UniProtKB/TrEMBL annotation:
<keyword id="KW-0479">Metal-binding</keyword>
<keyword id="KW-0949">S-adenosyl-L-methionine</keyword>
<dbReference type="Pfam" id="PF04055">
    <property type="entry name" value="Radical_SAM"/>
</dbReference>
<protein>
    <submittedName>
        <fullName>Oxidoreductase</fullName>
    </submittedName>
</protein>
<dbReference type="InterPro" id="IPR058240">
    <property type="entry name" value="rSAM_sf"/>
</dbReference>
<keyword id="KW-0408">Iron</keyword>
<dbReference type="InterPro" id="IPR006158">
    <property type="entry name" value="Cobalamin-bd"/>
</dbReference>
<dbReference type="Pfam" id="PF02310">
    <property type="entry name" value="B12-binding"/>
</dbReference>
<dbReference type="InterPro" id="IPR007197">
    <property type="entry name" value="rSAM"/>
</dbReference>
<dbReference type="InterPro" id="IPR023404">
    <property type="entry name" value="rSAM_horseshoe"/>
</dbReference>
<dbReference type="InterPro" id="IPR051198">
    <property type="entry name" value="BchE-like"/>
</dbReference>
<keyword id="KW-0411">Iron-sulfur</keyword>
<dbReference type="GO" id="GO:0046872">
    <property type="term" value="F:metal ion binding"/>
</dbReference>
<dbReference type="GO" id="GO:0031419">
    <property type="term" value="F:cobalamin binding"/>
</dbReference>
<dbReference type="InterPro" id="IPR036724">
    <property type="entry name" value="Cobalamin-bd_sf"/>
</dbReference>
<dbReference type="GO" id="GO:0003824">
    <property type="term" value="F:catalytic activity"/>
</dbReference>
<feature type="domain" description="Radical SAM core">
    <location>
        <begin position="216"/>
        <end position="462"/>
    </location>
</feature>
Length: 497
C-alpha cells in the first residue's frame, strides 16, 4: 500500500492495571491503518511503576475484590523494564512519527518516555485532554514537535499523509506545530462525523488486554463507543469545557448511528469472542427515546451482558424493565455528593436526594446490578457534608459504592475556583484519583484520606459502630487493626462488590 513504509508508534501511557481497552487510541490506530500506515502501540498498562495503581487503592478501601491477574495469563512487568522496553521498541520499529495521548494523571510518564528518544530525528506529536487544555505548556516541552488540540483521528491522519508525501504540514486544523523557531497555531476543525470513522482497532494491543474484572470475575470485555460528549454542565468535569471550545465547529454531543454501532458489536463478537460490552457514553440514557427503544429492540437478539454509566434523573421503571429485557448486567449511577444544597450550587447537578433514592431503589428491585459513584473532598467540603454523602448511600442497597477523591482537573470550573481560593497553585497537576490535592481550612488531607479508607465501612456497617469505625480512619496501629476487624467482618458476610 502507498503508506505501508511510513511507521507510526502510538504510546498509551496508562495507569498500571487499568484494564479497560481505550477507545481513543484504538480509533486513531484504525483510522491510520485504513489509510495504509504501519501502526504499532506501546502500552504501559502491565508495568508496575512507582505510581500506586488505582486498583490497589480500590482493593485496599474495599471497593473492588482483589483478583489474580495470572488467572487470565496476565503477567506483571517490573517498572524498571518500562523504559528499556520502550527504547527497544523504538530501535526495532524505527518509527517515522511517535504519537502520545495523555491525561493529566499520565502526562508526566508519557513525557519521560518521549525524552528518552528525543533528538533521533523522529517527529513527536502529543495529544489528549491534558494537551487540549494546556497547549502552550505541552508544546514547550523540548521533545515535542507538534500537538493535537481536540479530536485526533483526522488530524494525525492528514499529518502523516503530508509528511509521507513530503508536503508542508503547518496548517492542519487541530494542530500546533513548532518549526525553525516559529509556532503555527491552527484553529479547530469540524468535529468528527462518527459515522465516517472505521471500527476501533483493538488488535494493536496485547491480546490479554481484552480481559477486565467485574465483581471479581474476569470477562472478555470491549468498549462500545455509543456517543461522544455530554449534555450536562458538571463543574468538576471537562465535558462542558469541550462543548464550549468546539461550539463553533459542531455539536459536541454526538450519538453514533445505530447501524454502525451494531456492525461494531457484531465485529466484536466475531473477531474477539466478546463476553461483555462496556458502553462508552458519558450518560448513556440521555439518548432520545426513539433511539433507546430501537437499541433495545435490536440488542434483545444479542443479549451479551453490558454495562454503562448514567445519572439518576434518566432512570424510571419502564426504562429499567426494557434494559432487563436486553440483558443489561450492570449500570453505574453518578451521585457524587449527598449534600443537596452543595450539589446544586457548586456542582450544578440539579436533582433532589429524594429523586436519587427513588431512582436507585428502582434499580435495586430489578435484576440489574448497579454501582453508585461518589466523590469526596470537594472544595470547601467538611466532614459533615461528606457524611451527607454517606447517609445518602445508606438509603438504598447498591452492589458497589465507589469513592474517589476530588481532583481539580484542567479545563474544569472547579479547578479555577481552587486556584482562586489558593487551595492549589496555578502549576498544580493531578497525580491520581485517590490522594487529596487541596489544602483547605474546612477539612485536612488526612481526614479526607481517612474517610476514603473507611467509606465502605460507614455505608455497610451498623450506625452503632460509627464511633469505633472512626478509629479506623487513622493510619495508626489501633486504626489499622480496627479497619482490619471490620473489613474481615464485611467480607465474611459475602459483601457483593
Amino acid at each position: 500500500m502507498k503508506y505501508s513504509n511510513f511507521r507510526i508508534l502510538l504510546i498509551y501511557a496508562n495507569e498500571p492495571f487499568t484494564l479497560l481497552m481505550p477507545i481513543g487510541i484504538s480509533s486513531i490506530a484504525a483510522t491510520l491503518k485504513k489509510e495504509g500506515f504501519n501502526v504499532k502501540v506501546f502500552d504501559t498498562t502491565f508495568y508496575r511503576t512507582d505510581q500506586k495503581a488505582g486498583n490497589i487503592y480500590r482493593e485496599s478501601s474495599l471497593q473492588v475484590r482483589k483478583v489474580n491477574y495470572s488467572d487470565v495469563g496476565i503477567k506483571e512487568r517490573e517498572g524498571k523494564d518500562l523504559f528499556k522496553d520502550f527504547l527497544k521498541t523504538v530501535v526495532e520499529f524505527k518509527p517515522n512519527l511517535i504519537g502520545l495521548s495523555t491525561t493529566e494523571v499520565t502526562h508526566e510518564l508519557g513525557i519521560a518516555l518521549l525524552n528518552l528518544v528525543a533528538n533521533r530525528g523522529i517527529i513527536i506529536m502529543v495529544g489528549g485532554v491534558h494537551t487540549t487544555f494546556n497547549p502552550d505548556e505541552v508544546l514547550s516541552e523540548k521533545c515535542v514537535d507538534i500537538i493535537c488540540v481536540g479530536e485526533g483521528e483526522l488530524a494525525i491522519s492528514e499529518l502523516c499523509k503530508r509528511i509521507a508525501n513530503g508536503n508542508d504540514y503547518f496548517d492542519i486544523p487541530n494542530t500546533w506545530v513548532k518549526s525553525n523557531g516559529r509556532v503555527y497555531k491552527n484553529g479547530y476543525g469540524e468535529l468528527e462525523d462518527l459515522t465516517k470513522l472505521p471500527p476501533p482497532d483493538f488488535e494493536v494491543f496485547d491480546s490479554k488486554r481484552i480481559y477486565r474484572q467485574m465483581g471479581g470475575v474476569f470477562y472478555k470485555m470491549l468498549p462500545m463507543e455509543f456517543s461522544r460528549g455530554c449534555i450536562y454542565n458538571c463543574t468538576y468535569c471537562s465535558a462542558p469545557a469541550f462543548a464550549t471550545l468546539f461550539g463553533g465547529v459542531g455539536k459536541w454531543f454526538r450519538i453514533k448511528d445505530l447501524d454502525q454501532i451494531f456492525s461494531e458489536i457484531g465485529l466484536g463478537i466475531e473477531k474477539y469472542q466478546v463476553e461483555y460490552f462496556y458502553i462508552v457514553s458519558e450518560t448513556f440514557l440521555t439518548m432520545p427515546r426513539k433511539v433507546f427503544d430501537e437499541f433495545i429492540k435490536r440488542y434483545k437478539k444479542i443479549r451479551i451482558p453490558f454495562w454503562f454509566n448514567t445519572r439518576p434523573e434518566t432512570i424510571n421503571e419502564e426504562v429499567v424493565n426494557k434494559l432487563e429485557e436486553a440483558n443489561c448486567h450492570r449500570m453505574s449511577i453518578g451521585i457524587e455528593c449527598g449534600n443537596e444544597k452543595y450539589r446544586r450550587s457548586m456542582l450544578k447537578r440539579n436533582i433532589s436526594n429524594e429523586k436519587i433514592i427513588a431512582a436507585c431503589k428502582i434499580v435495586e428491585k430489578s435484576t440489574i446490578q448497579f454501582s453508585v459513584n461518589n466523590i469526596i473532598g470537594f472544595p470547601d467540603e467538611t466532614r459533615e457534608t461528606i457524611f451527607d454523602t454517606i447517609k445518602l448511600n445508606r438509603a438504598f442497597v447498591a452492589d458497589s459504592h465507589t469513592c474517589s477523591i476530588f481532583q481539580p482537573f484542567g479545563g474544569t470550573p472547579l479547578r479555577q475556583y481552587c486556584v482562586e481560593k489558593q487551595y492549589i497553585d496555578q502549576e498544580f497537576r493531578v497525580g491520581n484519583f485517590y490522594e487529596p490535592s487541596l489544602n483547605m481550612p474546612s477539612i485536612t488531607k488526612e481526614e479526607i484520606k481517612g474517610l476514603f479508607k473507611t467509606f465502605q465501612l460507614y455505608i455497610r456497617c451498623d450506625e452503632k459502630d460509627f464511633e469505633d469505625i472512626r478509629k479506623a480512619e487513622k493510619d495508626t496501629e489501633e486504626g489499622n487493626e480496627t479497619f482490619k476487624y471490620y473489613s474481615t467482618k464485611l467480607l465474611s458476610n459475602n459483601m457483593n462488590f
